[in-house]
Design brief:
This protein has 211 residues and is of the alpha/beta class. It has one domain: Alpha-Beta Complex (Maf protein). It contains five helices and six strands; from the N terminus they run E-H-E-H-E-H-E-E-E-H-H. A six-stranded mixed beta sheet has the order 2-1-3-4-5-6. Strand 1, helix 1 and strand 2 form a beta-alpha-beta unit. Bound molecules: inosine 5'-triphosphate.
Length: 211
Amino acid sequence: MHRRITGQLVIATHNPGKLAEMRELLAPYGIEAVSAGELGLDEPEETGTSFRANAQIKALAAAKAAQLPAFADDSGLVVDALDGAPGIYSARWAGPNKDFTGAMTRIERLLQERGATTPEQRRAHFVSALCVAWPDDHIEEVEARADGTLVWPPRGTAGFGYDPSFMPDGHTRTFGEMTSIEKHGLPPLGLGLSHRARAFVKLAEICLEPR
Ligand code: ITT
């Protein structure tokens, strides 16, 4: 049986870009959301070997610590020509200083080394695994992806992380050139564009009721 989210919810992320998007996605549902940072919760070590496992680790750690339901996202950029890298290591490729220009430059260097110059050779997708966990260990989880092409040089200053390098299929602008509303691509603009918005649509179906 799926469980509905009611009352207060902890958003179990320490990434400000994700936090803003997760708050926006929750807004139409009237959920009172408080962030892990606001509650002073520690960041657990992401020891899982999949997006799903790491989302569970983060949601369960926050749910236990706060004694409230907690909502986590584990996500990353999967580059076909790099055998799926950086994948679950997407945050780690930016290093302790969260240098995503450096991480995008590293990806580009590796693509050049492999001779990946055409759009077909530069295919990539973002993945978002979302998990809501309750203090009694109940979990709800969903996953989705957004497919696209990597561009160089990066374009746009909106969004976060790898957004300026990623052009979603069917669009001529990168996520870095889109407003967050365009990046979500939810009605009335579309049925979900970003990996996170697409996963959220699935989560909303099983756990949320519109206000
Ligand atoms: P939390 O674990 O605290 O949520 P984090 O940044 O460490 O924050 P992840 O472990 O899930 O989160 O790392 C995912 C990385 O992948 C993230 O740091 C981004 O750089 C990148 N990423 C995920 N979603 C993205 C998006 O929508 N746009 C751009 N980059 C994204």
